[in-house]
């Protein structure tokens, strides 16, 4: 009996490791199946379901593969806060994983945390000179208004990827804002050697030439763009401006009017057409309509301004202690809209509350001169005038 017991214990101990290993194998298989299911759900854009599936595997132990998939799901789902937190956890454990850092740069930029995007982006570049990351660092500096630093990283991007149209445009814009036109022309030329018919960069060079006073080279660029089918407002507008400054007035008129057909909201364009017609010694009857259009754009809508000042006045009127401000705005409201005659009696009432009876009487009488006799407002003003005259008599 003792021997049987020893044999039983020996067999049990021999089988125990096999039993535990089988449990571990089943657990690993379940984990992998769950991850695969989540990946499939993510691939068919069922991101929320993928997150729920992966969440069942998140426990007390750190599982990098699960957290990496979870971070990616949050990122694709637009949940940038959770994605940032998960990638932060992953980089704290695996700081050399470049994918985590690249995602962090993109997330920080989208969250407008530009300083953090720059910091992590530089860490990425120390590991691998990725042109897109250099570009994002440049964009971050650009957003922060640090344009010299932006140019450093934009130029680094172009060194890695010379024909990046988007980055060339951003560099050109910085130079244009600084009025550094030769730099714009130089960077545009470098790109146009690769893509001479580009419809985005060529007009940028044309603008720099125009602003730099080189009108004929600019005309060549804009005319070529029209032949390529780039029939946009800016092409016609600046081509017209170039023709105007080179005294090719009939061509300037043609191009500026073509621009007007595309966008009639620019006061400078209306004035430019009037200027071209005047320089061409056209009759004033031809020039005047364009001056009228320009003037109409500059003059504010009086009815809108009247309503705005009316609301200001009403607000101060209701405060019961800001009569001067109420008077000021009601006067402006009436000046912009003389049909708003109730403003006159309101102004009079405000003066009355200030005990400035002579001014109140003056404004009530202005109201009576235009109000409808017998109306409630008319009767109110008459009664108020009677009271005010009594007050003034007592004062005298």
Write the layout of secondary structure elements.
Blueprint lengths: L1 H42 L3 H9 L8 H13 L3 H14 L4 H13 L3 H14 L3 H13 L3 H14 L4 H13 L3 H12 L8 H11 L3 H13 L5 H13 L3 H14 L4 H13 L4 H15 L3 H18 L3 H14 L5 H12 L3 H14 L5 H20 L1
Describe what you observe in this structure.
Helices cover 79% and strands 0% of the residues. Helix 5 (98-110) runs parallel beside helix 7 (131-143). Mean pLDDT is 85; it is low at 1-20. The longest helix has 42 residues, at 2-43. It has 396 residues and is an all-alpha fold. It starts with a helix and ends with a helix. It is flat and about 110 Å long. The chain has helices at 2-43, 47-55, 64-76, 80-93, 98-110, 114-127, 131-143, 147-160, 165-177, 181-192, 201-211, 215-227, 233-245, 249-262, 267-279, 284-298, 302-319, 323-336, 342-353, 357-370, 376-395.
Question: What percent of residues are in strands?
Answer: under 5%
What number is the mean pLDDT? Answer: 85
Distance from N terminus to C terminus (CA atoms, Å) equals: 135 Å
H/E element order: HHHHHHHHHHHHHHHHHHHHH
Helix content: over 70%
The best one-word shape is flat
Defining traits:
79% helix, mainly alpha, flat, disordered N terminus, 396 residues, 21 helices
